Amino acid sequence: MKFFFSLFWMDPLPDLPTYLKVVCGCFTVGWYGQSVNDGRIVKVMCYYLDGTVNPYMRPMEGITVTVDLDKMEIVGFMDRIAVPMPKANGTDYRGSQQTPPLGPGLKGITAVQPDGPSFNLDGHFVRWANWEFHLGFDVRAGPITSLASILDLEQETFRRVLHRGYMSELFVPYMDLTEEWYY
């Protein structure tokens, strides 16, 4: 933990203290079949902004902080390895900061469906291919798919496969398997 906190006081710059150039974001922890509910646990990843507006380009690798949001306390801390900080040069993605060559200019694109779309909308109800489902939106949860059914060709009827699903709760473990990225 000593190394982690030393990052906040190293290399002070006159315009902004180093600790103000560190931003952290929390990411939900996946569920892998544990029988015990450990509460609302998140992993906190920190990034160093000095020289860039894109925090994801300069992660503070090797450091993992786990927080229980119900208790509002740190329940885990790992300072596993020191990884060199990526350079900030060339990480600004804003259009106003881009310099040529940017590659050839893109030509316009048009999607044409001469026979009409392959889906039907009836209010918030969508019918597409062998599927039908209700699509709703919530300010907090985002897109919500409910009453999803697929056509069962053997029974010649729609079979319900999802009552309600929140896109915000979708979890796909596609990251690196190191401690900092696997959750």
From TrEMBL:
Residues 110-182 form the Copper amine oxidase catalytic domain. Residues 21-81 form the Copper amine oxidase N3-terminal domain. It is an enzyme of class 1 (oxidoreductase). It comes from the Eukaryota. Its cofactor is Cu cation. GO terms for molecular function: copper ion binding; primary methylamine oxidase activity; quinone binding. One of its GO terms (biological process) is amine metabolic process. Its EC number is 1.4.3.-. Topaquinone (TPQ) is generated by copper-dependent autoxidation of a specific tyrosyl residue. The keyword Transcription regulation does not apply. Keywords: Copper, Metal-binding, Oxidoreductase, TPQ. The keyword Oxidoreductase applies. Contains 1 topaquinone per subunit. SUPFAM superfamilies: Amine oxidase catalytic domain, Amine oxidase N-terminal region. Belongs to the copper/topaquinone oxidase family. This is Amine oxidase.
